[in-house]
Amino acid sequence: MNKDGSLISMSGVAKRYEHFTMENFNLQLSSGEVLGLIGPNGAGKTTCLRLIMGFISADQGDIEVLGKSVKHDIVSIKQDVAYVAEDMRMFGNKTIQWHMQFFSSLFVNWDQPYATELLETFQLIPQQQVKTLSLGQRIKTSLLLALARRPRILVLDEPSTGLDPVARHELTSQLFQIMLNEDHSVIFSSQFTQDVERLSDRIVFIDDGQIISNQDKESYLDSWKRIDVCLEAEKDLKAFSDIKEVQKNALNMSVIHSEFNSEIQKRYSQLGYSIEISKLTLEEIFIAQTLHRRQHLSAKGINA
Amino acid sequence: MISMTQKLIIQKDIQLFAKSVSICIASGLLFCGLFMLPGQFFIVLGSILIITIMLGYYPYLITTCVTREHKDKNTVFVMSLPITTGQYLFSKILSCAILYGACWIILLSTVICVFYLGGHLPALMPSYYVVMFGLFIPAFLLTLLVAILAESEGWTIVSFIFSNILVTLLVNVLPNLPAVQQAFGMGNLNDQGILWPSIFTYIALSEIIISVMLACALFIVVKTKRQFINF
Known about the structure:
- The structure holds 2 protein chains of 2 kinds.
- By secondary structure, chain A is α/β, with parallel strands linked by helices.
- Chain A has helices at residues 45-52, 70-80, 96-106, 112-121, 135-147, 165-181, 193-199, 217-223, 262-270, 282-299, and strands at 8-16, 21-29, 34-38, 60-65, 68-69, 81-85, 153-157, 185-189, 202-207, 210-216, 225-230, 243-248, 252-257, 276-279.
- Chain A folds into 2 domains: 8-215, Rossmann fold, CATH 3.40.50.300; 221-299, Alpha-Beta Plaits (2-Layer Sandwich).
- In chain A, strand 9 and strand 10 (210-216) form a beta hairpin.
- Chain A starts with 7 loop residues before the first strand and ends in a 5-residue tail after the last helix.
- Chain B is built from 9 helices and no strands.
- In chain B, helix 1 runs parallel beside helix 4 (85-117), helix 2 packs parallel to helix 5 (125-150) and helix 2 (40-71) runs antiparallel to helix 6.
- The A-B interface holds A 50, 53-57, 74-76, 78-79, 82-85, 87-94, 102, 105-106, 142 and B 3-5, 8, 12, 16, 72-74, 76-77, 79-84, 87, 226-228, 231.
């Protein structure tokens, strides 16, 4: 564990590429927590996870995992941290069984009975060559190898990308079940907000290499609300600083608030408007937040 | 000291290339048989075929073992194992060196044995082959260095073409050197034993120096490379 009690700690991390910059990035993962990273393409989710795994080195800042520095102790860190990504390829002409044996000789905590159980859960045939597996089966094999290692932390980089809706639903259901049954600390990224909404305890929204919000799931989802109000209210919307989107139609308008609370509700009534409050899904929040940020940046003359 | 992960990666590579390296060695051994046949034609033919094997195998080995792992995204998988970038690269160098080294040693020693058995061959042949096989080492190391530095199949092929042209040029220049021509006319192995003209010492020394320099460059790359370009 790190000094601050977290399992993963990124402080003041910077990573610069020609067309992408991550600056002053701070993130923590607590024990037993499932942290979901969301953000548009190129936001920095994969960069963040690859920095944690030591695949790429930070230009600035400190990354500590399980109390060890990623820069100096990456081999020992990787004994306890498993990584699965959609674009990760195992050795094509080797079988699942071969990969299981390969992992069992590498990891002291390899749990063979659990691996056998996962083979059944994921309906995988150990004698099958990796190159003959479908994308879904390949991801399940990677997950099997990662989980049967009994890692202290699981890092998943968009594991369900590229899967058809049925395969994705099946995979997230199985993953959800595993996470419920086992005490896992997980950090994962996904473009599928339903997956993040379903699996995570905390949601971190990243855009353009920066953390835009970092909150526990309940309060994050709770703070975003859609308010249906009459068109006349438009002139008074300046009174609210947290409005992310306004959509007008013939009779009324929808206003999206990112920090909705009883105070805001009271303010509407003080202004004499009757409102209808509805919840937003994470997908709606994701779209509203991304578009609002892009509009805000383009108004400032910065390319998002 | 190499770690368990490195050992397993090397083991996997050797298993993966066992078939191709065996085919290479077997065909090389078969071509060595040509030296036993009478006439200069078979010596030339055998030499051309053996040179072709040696020049053809290392680019295949390096592109498949090193650069294709990047292209096929195997490196993301391998790097999730308890291993550093340097350790991974060192394993790849060792795998290639073991596989190509096995081919090199077996074929060279067989050729020399065959020359001894057929004592009628020119007395220069064993040392000539040692010097000629020596050319393959810097060519192999150069291609390996480019493959590790550039992580690209394209650049690996460019470096192979470059090293191949150089080796082919030298292989053609070598027998036409006056000292070598003179030594070729000095009789057969039965009468003279092995001949080692002084020019071979200079050529062999150059091969050793260039190989050591390339090996040092590889060592520096392995020690300093912190991440892959394609990550």
